[in-house]
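Annotated sample (chain length 84).
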Amino acid sequence: MTTTYRATVTREDGWWMIHVPEIDGLTQSRRLADAGQMARELIAVTLDAALDDIEVDVSTKHVAGLAAGEIDYAVSGESPSRRP
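Output written by the structure step:
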């Protein structure tokens, strides 16, 4: 059974800080595109669960100098212009 968790990403001192409130966990990533995977791995290790059973809904807080579309693209890898 797959469980979906929330992760909130913020920028701090050159790192992307990834907070997963359901487990009160925090991890970090150099690249925003890696935030989802890093959150999944944190959850799996914390809960002793299989990665295949974990999905993460990543959201970002406002980051100075980046438009929302740029942040979404960095997280999903999907170009904002290709969205419906």
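Annotation: The helical segments are 35-47, 68-76.
Annotation: The longest helix spans residues 35-47.
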